[in-house]
Design a protein that fits this description.
Radius of gyration: 20 Å
Strand content: 15-25%
Helix content: 25-40%
Number of helices: 11
Shape: globular
Number of strands: 11
Order of helices and strands: EHEHEHEHEHEHEHHEEEHEHH
Mean pLDDT: 95
Structural class: alpha/beta
Length: about 375
């Protein structure tokens, strides 16, 4: 399984996350020395697929500095600002096509310097469904900005009309929505989502602490998670109207580990501010207050500094390969195990330890999804 076969992916949004993913794939392609399989990967060989079995066959963006360029050039164009896993990657002879803007661009971003924000191209959007068919893509990765609800639904419809799988890496609820999930199931198209969970990021650390408190009998009274960053994701999220689904996704990810969940006024999780010079570095502050044995108060504070987009890529690379396994096995609809392991707002929440075991069983063919 997976021998000498490529997983053909299409990407919507050739931003920082896509840049890190493609740089990482190229890195592992050229670093197959002993021990490489243990460096930064949860699974080097997943069901017979290695990282470099992933191949980009189509890409869509709206920025004039990216549209028309080859993908390997576009990932280095502004406003991308990722930590460079590689300063150049091998040629990818796939041009970035003009996507559909819809609500994928927030007007407030026009007020910032060009190297920090999007510059929409003045071009006619392509027929996305037609491009997906011509490229013979297996899977579409959605890397649209937070708040792109209409645009996400548009690209999901394109997947449904072409038989292409969807990995929804942003917080618009598709895979976790029973109505959308049924539509993918009815057409026997596997999908994974929603809202990608970093390899070691704010959400998974906060979830782990919440589970630890609960397992050790400490009553959590209140908690917050505050995040700052300097990439276009954080700039986009200065428009608080775009944050509704993001806050729901991040909050439920933590609440799912608490029994009982906290009252709304006692939990605050969400993006906090945009600090341009941080670029793709994300700073997270977590505080948890609780009561332990005998009602004695205790608290914990944590500061995390991490490069945001490589953190996402380390998870996406497994989601892509699991999705391809489902396609080979003719399994359609929401993939429960890998969604729970890699996404903040999956169809069904599990502890991260349990989700990891479920993914292993899925890879081994012990469970269907």
């Amino acid at each position: 399984m997976g021998q000498n076969k490529k997983i053909k992916i299409a990407i919507v949004g050739v931003g920082n996350c896509a840049a890190s993913l493609l740089q990482g794939i190229d890195y592992y392609r050229h670093n197959k020395h002993e021990g490489a399989q243990y460096l930064g990967l949860m699974n080097y060989n997943l069901g017979g697929y290695l990282p470099d079995d992933i191949e980009v066959v189509a890409a869509f963006d709206i920025d004039k500095r990216k549209v028309g360029k080859r993908v390997d050039q576009a990932i280095y164009a502004p406003p991308n600002c990722v930590f460079p896993i590689k300063t150049a990657i091998g040629k990818i002879n796939v041009p970035v096509k003009m996507g559909h803007i819809l609500d994928g661009f927030s007007n407030h971003m026009k007020n910032y310097p060009p190297h920090r924000t999007f510059i929409p191209a003045d071009e006619t959007p392509v027929d996305v469904a037609d491009e997906l068919q011509k490229s013979k893509a297996d899977i579409l990765l959605n890397y649209l900005p937070v708040g792109s609800e209409q645009a996400t639904r548009f690209y999901a419809e394109c997947c449904l009309s072409t038989g292409v799988s969807l990995i929804n890496c942003m917080p618009a609820f598709i895979v976790s929505d029973p109505i959308w999930a049924k539509r993918f199931s009815d057409k026997n198209i596997p999908c994974i989502g929603d809202d990608i969970k970093a390899q070691i990021g704010a959400t998974i650390i906060h979830r782990t602490l919440a589970k630890l408190f609960s397992d050790r009998g400490v009553k959590v009274d209140r908690t917050y998670q505050l995040n700052t960053g300097g990439n276009t994701d954080f700039l986009n999220m200065l428009n608080r109207e775009r944050l509704k689904s993001k806050k729901i996704s991040k909050t439920q990810a933590v609440q799912s580990q608490l029994n009982p969940p906290l009252e709304e006024e006692n939990i605050h999780i969400g993006p906090s501010d945009y600090v341009p010079w941080q670029n793709d570095n994300k700073i997270c502050f977590i505080r948890m207050e609780g009561r332990s044995f005998g009602g004695v108060p205790m608290n914990i504070e944590l500061r995390l500094s991490v490069e945001d987009s490589p953190n996402s890529a380390g998870v996406a690379i497994d989601a892509i390969r699991c999705c391809q396994l489902a396609r080979e096995r003719k399994i359609g609809g929401s993939l429960i195990s890998i969604s729970a392991f890699t996404m903040k707002h999956p169809p069904q929440q599990f502890s991260d330890t349990d989700a990891k075991q479920l993914v292993k069983k899925f890879i081994d063919g012990i469970i269907e999804r």
